[in-house]
Amino acid sequence: MEEKIYETLNEIFRDIFDDEEIVVTPETNSDSIEDWDSLEHINLVVAIEKAFDLKFSMDEVTGMKDVGEMVEIIKERGKNL
Amino acid sequence: MRQLEYPFDADEIIKKRKSLRRSLMEEEAASSRLKKRVAVLGGSTTANVVQVLDLFLLNQGIEGTFYESEYNKYYEDAMFGNPELDSFQPDVIYLHTSVHNIMTFPRPTDSTEQIQAKLDAEYGRFEAMWKKIAEVHGCVIIQNNFEYPDWRLLGNKDVTELSGRVNFVSRLNALFAEYARNTQNFFIHDVNYLSGYLGLTKWCDPFYWNMYKYCPAVPLIPELAYSVSCIIKSIYGKNKKALVLDLDNTLWGGIVGDDGPENLQIGTETARGETFLEFQEYLKAQKDLGILLNIDSKNEEENAIAGLNAKGSALTPDDFICIKANWDPKDRNILQIAKELNLGADSFVFVDDNPAERHIVSEQIAGIAVPEIGEPENYIRVLDRSGFFEATNISKDDASRNEMYKANAERSKLEASFADYEDYLKSLEMTAEIASFSKEYIPRISQLTNKSNQFNLTTLRCSVADIEEMAEADNWITLYGKLEDRFGDNGVVAVEAAEIKPQTMDSLGKEAHIRLNLMSCRVLKRDMEFAMLDVLVKKASEKGVTTLIGHYLPTKKNGMVKELYTDLGFTRDGDIWKLDVASYKPQCKVIKIN
Questions:
Q1: ipTM of the complex
Q2: Which residue of A has its CA nearest to B14?
Q3: What is the mean pLDDT of each run of 10 residues along chain B (594 residues)?
Q4: Number of domains into which chain B is organized
Q5: Which superfamily does CATH assign the domain made up of A2-77 to?
Q6: Do A43 and B14 touch (CB under 8 A)?
Q7: How far apart are CA B306 and CA B256, in angstroms?
Q8: Which of B121, B220, B309, B577 has its CA at a distance of 20 to 30 angstroms from the CA of residue B333?
Q9: Which domain holds residue B191?
Q10: Which of B235, B251, B280 marks a domain boundary?
């Protein structure tokens, strides 16, 4: 399951940052991708919510430190896994 | 680009924004796009709005450069300006405000007077901004009206009580609309409608407001941006002008050739028949607004006409300008219609239920709109929300355009009966009214500068504000030409404007440069250009001008006027053409000038 989540996330990240080379890992965060600013962050949230048919809460979005934490939430509540 | 045409997938646009932009910039049309400067002054976060608006405008043929106010600094920017905005020199200012920007709502305990005072204050704050922008920048203003608030203290009574927030928003919106009705160059972006259409629950999602100060919610921003882009492209003359419609299963249910006209599904008897009837009524209303209706159908002509005359139809054969019912490829028919109407093929919207026909037409004809029209019950929605005919500049001429094109068809018949073309022109009994720009025609003049592509020497596009400026300036000679003939009034069809330059060292007299010289295609080859020049020379001479200078800036579409100045008697001098005012003799013999 986790593998499939990362596959989908890779696709989303590559689309949003228009960079085919991106490979996300649990440690990936806004420091590891140069263009990851607040604007793209929102676009990421929208795309990920759509892909896994879930809604993040404000606390979750504020609290997420890296992709790993995001994946934990997706595993818990996401669909299309 | 399919992804940016309605109905579009908003999530895809947000996700693939960067690669979409890359492909748009690589398009062949990239170099011929209009360049416009758009300032977005926001009462909420605007970064995403600007990015998506950029995509839609590019797809509509406009390359935008953008200025963004700091977060929620719309009022400060509008009222007090700042050096960056001043030097930006916007063509358009878009005020992206929302219900969150209403500063003081009434309270349930407020008296009627207190509520009125709050309404006046709120409206006054906006009106002051609009007036200031008009004074400082003189540009087009697009102002959001307000969505309804996300919550209602009084529940359903919020709409009736003067102290209700829903009531307050409705009254403010009515005041905004009234201002727009009475003000040139000022347009309401109807957020109230759009948010209702898309659903207030999604529009006002508190997550996006509280987290990022976005209103509307980010997933709906493409809808907002598309809607704004429709206003902008309409202002700059990028609207479509005509519909080309298929018949079987597009205008009625069934196949007229197989089923017979009496068995078509059209009219109030069945749900499906009623669906097509509503679509026909929608098209008929479009026609009344001046959209030209045409038919392109694989049918015997006789059957096509019988279908249009079927009992229960709203449309009749008379509602159409060109009816092509034959077995030729549809793209070929469309090009023929374009030729007959003297319009570019990119001015057309092609509506056909058959995806294969849609595919061929969109592959074969560059720039034509071919909406994914869907099922019959969605035809109206798709056409309506596509904004092909977004009305920003309704001129009196629009309503009578269909009659004019019909009259053109009558003229063609008459022309065929004359051996000598001048005799034919004389038989038209033409009279022209040619005078300086006057207030009542300014919207039409601006519209013509934006719409005319073929008979247009400079393709200088002018907003209503630009035209007003020319009309008032002492150093401009301006002319509009209205043409009437025995078949009817063609309305304002020609525009000229010349800028007088002060005397220079190397020229002894005053020169006037013809910056605008254009004519509507509906009156080509009527000698109207001579009538216009006769009057221009007269006015020039009154202003002490000794030489008229003609300019021709070639575009893809204006090849027909390449030699115009030579034909009018100017002498070529390098890139320009010159005409001596003193020795000019009036040339127009077939039009009576008033």
A1: 0.88
A2: A43
A3: 93 94 90 93 96 96 96 94 94 97 94 96 96 94 97 95 97 98 94 97 95 95 98 93 96 94 93 96 94 95 95 94 93 92 92 94 93 96 96 71 74 76 86 94 91 91 92 95 87 94 70 95 88 96 93 90 94 94 93 91
A4: 3
A5: ACP-like (1.10.1200.10)
A6: yes
A7: 8
A8: B309
A9: 2-235
A10: B235
